Amino acid sequence: MxxxxxxxxxxxxxxxxxxxxxxxxxxxxxxxxMPGPVFIGVRFFVASLxxxxxxxxxxxxxxxxxxxxxxxxxxxxxASLQVWxxxxxxxESLSEGAFIMSLAMIIAPFVSWILFRVKPNRAFWLSFxxxxxxxxxxxxxxxxxxxxxxxxxxxxxxxxxxHFVMNKRVITNIKPIASICIQLFVVGVSGLAxxxxxxxxxxxxxxxxxxxxxxxxxxxxxxxxxxxTVGQHSVNMEVAALIMILEPVWTLLLSVGVLGESVETxxxxxxxxxxxxxxxxxxWSRRK
Length: 288
Known about the structure:
This protein is mostly helical. The chain has 12 helices and 2 strands, in the order ααααααββαααααα. A hairpin with a 1-residue loop joins β1 and β2 (143-144). The protein is globular, with a radius of gyration of 19 Å.
């Protein structure tokens, strides 16, 4: 029975990574027609409302301190997503951005060391140089040629790693789906507030925009997080982490197939090296 439950959880996680990849494509197509801050605000506000019925009873059991803590880490997530969506709007290579964003898992131990004096394990020091090599392969084309989107993707990844570290300290004794719902709500509200306080270009609501927005908000956010939460509940943490590495791989395949994106051999190698560094970090961490 446990094996069947575990296998089902692994399938949920696998499908969640695929939906996350779809989310990258949908987001790129939406921000071609809609300002990024507006998109982030509406997308995550709608997604939180969809998740609310599944966790309202858990949210009611939370203390004020727990809710405020979740709101705080939600603001960190919001900052990361605002930087991310800007990078998505200006990049010509979604797959490259997905590989850079996946570095958040490697950066997180370093952040924990700086903020809380928790020294990274041996696996970090072994895998971090591999990740750096992968990053250099992504950014070094004809000489030193760092693109604007790469800088913003890296900044978003750093902010996401801070969110990982702080979120892990906050969600003790809190149901994951309740935590996710509150944080998505904070991202939505803060995103809408940011959009209202800044000048945003006018945009027209078209059928194409509505379609890809629904895909992004409902499929790639609400359903994805539901599957991810259920899957992580029944799967070993290391196995779950290995499956989640597939997100940038799906993004690469979908961006080539749907958007017609071409990927240079060197950048493809860089992405492969980054995936290898994540794989090594997870595997070596299990040997501590």
